[in-house]
Amino acid sequence: MPIYAYKCTSCGYAQDEMQKVSDAPLTVCPSCGKDDYAKQVTAAGFALKGTGWYATDFKGGSKPAETKPEAPSHACGTGACPACN
Ligand SMILES: [Zn+2]
User: How many A from CA of 72 to the centre of ligand 1?
Assistant: First the structure.
C-alpha cells in the first residue's frame, strides 16, 4: 500500500498517510479541520527511503568504488613503480 506525504497548508501539520491507490485523496486536516490538507508530490522520495529498498539500492551502487582500491597487488598501486618491480 503506497504511503503519501500530506501537509496542511493552513496550519503546517504534516503526516504520512497510508492509502490504497483507489482511495480518494484526503482534504481535511486532522489537526485544524480545515480543507487545506493536500498530498505532497516532492516528499514522495522520503516515503521511499523509509521502506528501506532505496537505501539498499544506494549501498549496491557504491560497492564497486569501495572494492577498486583493494585490487592492485602492489603497495603503491600503480603497477609500474620501480620499487615494487
Ligand atoms: Zn491544518
Answer: 59
Q: Identify the helix (H) or strand (E) that includes residue 7.
A: strand 3-8
C-alpha 69 – ligand 1 centre gap (Å): 53
Q: How far apart are CA 43 and CA 15, in angstroms?
A: 11
Query: 43-53: per-residue pLDDT in tens?
Result: 444 555 555 55
Sorted by where each starts, the structural domains of the chain and their CATH numbers stand as: 3-68 (2.20.28)
Q: Rounded to the nearest whole angstrom, what is the distance from the C-alpha of residue 54 to the centroid of ligand 1? A: 30
